[in-house]
Amino acid sequence: PTRDDHAIHLHRRNREQEQQSRKALELLLAILKTDKNYGDARKTMLDIFKSLGNGDPLVTEFQRQLFSLLY
Fold first, then answer.
1. Which end of the chain is more exposed for a tag (fewer CB within 10 A), N or C?
2. What is the pLDDT of residues 17-59, one digit of tens each?
3. HSE of 59 in the Cβ direction (CA atoms, 13 Å)?
4. What distance in Å separates the CA atoms of residue 55 and residue 69, rounded to the nearest whole number?
5. DSSP letters for 9-43
């Protein structure tokens, strides 16, 4: 494989991970809209935020939604 092939593979993998994170955050937020104290949903969201890092656009997007829901 060439460097371009490797770069394309990494880009696809990053996109797939982003989509999985988005789906997980959407599901957790939907759960919390129904029951703000449901299990570890809030902690799981915070764990995902931490794993993505503060600069990630998903973190910014879903932190806002989470905080507006809880406060």
1. C
2. 899 999 999 999 999 999 998 999 999 999 999 999 999 999 9
3. 11
4. 22
5. HHHHHHHHHHHHHHHHHHHHHHHHHH-TT-TTHHH
